[in-house]
Amino acid sequence: MLAWVILADQVDSRRHNDEVPHLLTALTSPGLLVSPTGYTVGTPQWVLPPERTSGDEVQALTTDPASLIHAVWTSGSGPWRIGVSHGEVDTPLPDSTRAARGPAYISAREAIDECRRRRAAIHVFADGTDGMRRFSQVAQVVVDLARRLRPAARDVAKFYDLSMSSDETARALGISTSAVSQRLTRARWEYLVGIRQLAVDLAQEAQWPSP
Questions:
Q1: What is the mean pLDDT of the chain?
Q2: Residue 149 neighbours by CB distance under 10 Å
Q3: With DSSP H G I counted as helix, E B as strand and the rest as coil, what are the percentages for the chain, rounded to 5?
Q4: From start to end of the chain, where are the E strands?
Q5: Residue 211: its pLDDT value, please?
Q6: Quick check: pTM over 0.85?
Q7: How high is the pLDDT of residue 128?
Q8: Which of 5, 1, 113 is nearest to 51 (CA)?
């Protein structure tokens, strides 16, 4: 079967707290799932759900571009290097992504290795197609935007992603509505959503290239 493999490796894990449990919770909890034409709050769709693999790594398998971009955005905002690939996965599938095999898993590992060599935040394994090249470029933008958000703005974005209003966000954070807007305006948040929508669109094109 064809699927996306995402592999997140915690940077400098020996010097910092273990962030794997937090990422696993975030990747399996309801969040913003975008499409090229809209967005909704839902639980990511995993063929094989995220798991800790070797110590400080998280790995998952999906056929859903919206869930893939949710994972890229979520891990991109934290201390992770991210490898992504799309390709064949051996069937029948095991119960755990740790036991899964196939070219897509090998490519995801190569993508992580490339991140280490380049000191990059994300690398998408290229299959030589224009579609995958375009997706790789926008995936880098998604991660860059996620990392550039200041912690205060990221807190607001998290609640906006759950479809909470400015008033609800203000109450949840214990701040004023005007302070919410100062941290992250709705217009800026909509721009961040739009970039993720573009990423989903290009992921769809990349996984099913036109003949």
A1: 94
A2: 19
A3: 50, 20, 30
A4: 2-10, 31-35, 38-42, 48-52, 57-62, 80-88, 122-124
A5: 55
A6: yes
A7: 79
A8: 5
User: Is the per-residue pLDDT at 122 higher than 90?
Assistant: yes
Which of 83, 80, 1 has its CA nearest to residue 47? Answer: 1
Q: In terms of Cα–Cα distance, which of 13, 25, 24 is closest to 80? A: 13
Residue pair 200/66 in contact (Cβ under 8 Å)? The answer is yes
4 bridge partner residues: 62, 86
User: Would the CA dihedral through 4, 24, 155, 9 be positive or negative?
Assistant: negative
pLDDT in tens, 33-91: 999 889 999 999 999 999 999 889 999 999 999 999 999 999 999 999 999 999 999 99
Residues 83, 103 contacting (CB under 8 angstroms): no
Spell out the residues 6+ positions from residue 85 whose beta carbon is closer than 8 angstroms to its own: 4, 5, 104, 105, 107, 108, 110, 111, 124, 125
Q: At 35, which amino acid appears?
A: S
Compute the average pLDDT of residues 154-161: 94
Does residue 129 sit in helix, strand or coil? coil
Contact predicate 156/164, CB 8 Å: no
Among 80, 77, 78, 85, which Cα is nearest to 142's?
Answer: 77
For residues 127-152, give the mean pLDDT.
Answer: 94
pLDDT at residue 13 is higher than 80:
no
189-194: Cβ within 8 A, 24+ apart: 189/156, 189/157, 189/160, 192/145, 192/157, 193/32, 193/34, 193/39
Domain boundaries, the chain: 1-205
Read off the tokens for 144. 């860059």
